[in-house]
Amino acid sequence: MGKHEEQRASLEARLAQWVLVQGLSKTSLRQLAAGVGTSDRMLLYYFRDKAELLEVVLGRIAGAMTLHLTAALPEGQQFAPAALYARVAELAASAELRPYMDRWGEMAAAAARTEQPFAAIADAITQGFQLWLESRLSICNDAERRDMASLLIVMIDGGALLEPLDGGRVSTRARQAMQALLETI
Amino acid sequence: MGKHEEQRASLEARLAQWVLVQGLSKTSLRQLAAGVGTSDRMLLYYFRDKAELLEVVLGRIAGAMTLHLTAALPEGQQFAPAALYARVAELAASAELRPYMDRWGEMAAAAARTEQPFAAIADAITQGFQLWLESRLSICNDAERRDMASLLIVMIDGGALLEPLDGGRVSTRARQAMQALLETI
DNA sequence: GAGTCGTTGTAGCATATGCTACATTTGTAA
DNA sequence: TTACAAATGTAGCATATGCTACAACGACTC
After folding, report:
1. pTM
2. Cys-Cys crosslink for A111: which of A122, A137, A139, B19, Cβ 3.0 to 4.6 Å?
3. A166, B128 in Cβ contact below 8 A?
4. Is A4 near strand C, with its CB below 7 A from some atom of it?
5. pLDDT tens readout for residues A38-72
């Protein structure tokens, strides 16, 4: 890796950390530059434009999130829906993963407004999460497994999205009801 | 109602219609003004500032949405969770209510980013929807009814929010799974 | 040492945004 | 008709944003 690539990689890492902590609302080039101690001019030296920068940085964040998830629930183990939901919901609420969920909520939100380049990234992450869940569900029927994985996505992501509303009461109650419901299967 | 109030009411209605169709991404004062055939100057003549304008306009939209919902499912009738979910999910997908759900998704999204004044409005709407659902659920136990209403909110809103992702496949599958799950109660 | 190429700073452009100051028109009451 | 207030237009400010032109600096080769 040449010096240029090294520098850029370092920049990417610092930007990812900054965005993970600060959120997607402070992502003007000048704000990002100040956050990682450089200038907007340099950001556009290392990245073609802002879209490419965000694409790379959000990709990094998504990758790190997948690593965390997979570290907690390695591939190979399979769970009943109630168990998988409990594990993932607990994970999503943990201090370690909370920032990632928050960012994810913001991204899905931005994607809903069809802001570029969020839509494409959110799409990729969603499909990745779908597969991740499917491969950990102990359901034989393919269609049922797909549907259940999607249900879990909506519950987990929806819960994360609605978390800020009503002081978190709605998503807490929903989680309880979902848990109870899944345990009846 | 004086002439001024009339004019303002008309403005509000036109703005609400415009925002309902165009979405929350085109809400600069100049864009709004062009959309309803006036000037940004006049918007600030009838509204203190942009925040007040959005508050009023989004409130109107929320009110209209509640009217639609209540027209379809009048107060007094009560349903089992599966039936209520089916009815509301069908409604939310209907051509009539789709724009409202889209706007609601955008609002929740904006609220997640703690953009003002979206958070407060989204909060109010959420609590209203919670009560609306509770009063239509045929569940005796209060806590269970609350939890189930919140679960439905997360499923319906979460589904609406994730609707744009993966071409709508995720939310469709989730809806099927949820329907099947609720029918086992 | 001169020149070259990769890197960085400075300054700025063009556009958009919320909002305001001031002037002008319009309606209305005397 | 005149006088006054309400309503509307014009122009602009201050700031923010993505991005670019140009110059300066630095290391390295010849």
Report:
1. 0.91
2. A122
3. no
4. yes
5. 999 999 999 999 999 999 999 999 999 999 999 99
